[in-house]
Amino acid sequence: MAFAPARALALAVQVCLAATAPALPAGAADTLTVGGTGSANELLRMVGAAFEARSGVTVDVVASLGSTGAIHALADGVLDVVVAGRRLTPKEVSEGLSVALSVRTPFVLATSHPSPGTMTLGDIANAYRSERAVWDDGSPIRPILRPRTEADTALMGELFPGLAAAMAMARQRPDVPVAATDQDNADMAEQTPGSLIGSTLTQLRLEKRKLRVIPIEGLEPSFENFERGIYPYAKPLNFIVRTPPAASAERFIGFLRSPEGQAMLRKANIL
Questions:
Q1: Cα gap 40→163, rounded to integer Å
Q2: Which of 3-12, 235-244, 261-270 has the lowest mean pLDDT?
């Protein structure tokens, strides 16, 4: 599948928003346009609705841009706030972007298998490397990859020893599909028997996905264990703005930092 360059995608989004946005009467409330990593789509809808109710600022969530596409859209003035699953590059910082709030959610392995059991770190790498990898009941493990440039691909390679090389090998396997977006990833996992994906607890819970999270080395990937420091695997969620931020963006970040905003983040399995 061919993908348009990130800045071309940002321009397309800008044109689309301009074409579909209704005309606002004089004195109408501001509009805040947000987007980013697909794993935060439902999170942005949830906190955006609460912020809109409190502030009168209309919140538009632009879905499925991904971290890098959304960051380019922010730099181009298409978005006001971005949630990215990675750090800013020096070039992006030089373009006047900055992280206004950084939080974390448990990064998990998930499957459609009804009883996956626990996986060791060696099991994880082997599941991507070997066509003969099986679950405890002998049924095949069917991993699903993300694009090479996707933030979660780099994250999984950092979190799990040997997995970067194993995923590179898996790209040579004809039986291993590649999911373009976070939502595609979860959709394919739900539809594939014995699937294996990396995802976030935030996405799986807020989207009510019919997938089971997999203990790693016997550690249950629950939010309680994550909060206590027992489960160590995390994905960063960085709320990024232009410098200086628009007034509505600054108010939105302030809402997230407030007791109400912090309670909503915790409800979404975010620290």
A1: 24
A2: 3-12
Same-domain check for residues 191 and 158: yes
Q: Cβ(127)–Cβ(141) under 8 Å?
A: yes
Q: What CATH number did the domain enclosing 261 receive?
A: 3.40.190.10
With respect to residue 24, please indicate whether it lies within any of the assigned structural domains.
no
User: Does 206 lie in the same domain as 171?
Assistant: yes
pLDDT of residue 64: 77
CA torsion 92-10-22-81 (nearest 10°) is -30
Q: Which of 115, 135, 116, 185 is nearest to 155 (CA)?
A: 185
218-256 pLDDT per residue, tens: 999 999 999 999 999 999 999 999 999 999 999 999 999
- pLDDT tens-place string over residues 27-62: 334 899 999 999 999 999 999 999 999 999 999 999
pTM as predicted: 0.87
Judgement on whether residues 130 and 152 belong to the same structural domain of the protein: yes
Q: Can you give the residue range of the structural domain that contains 131?
A: 105-227
Contacts 24+ apart (CB under 8 A), 205-213: 205/268, 205/269, 206/42, 206/43, 206/46, 206/268, 207/42, 207/183, 209/110, 210/112, 211/110, 211/111, 211/112, 211/186, 212/110, 212/111, 212/112, 212/113, 212/114, 212/116, 213/108, 213/109, 213/110
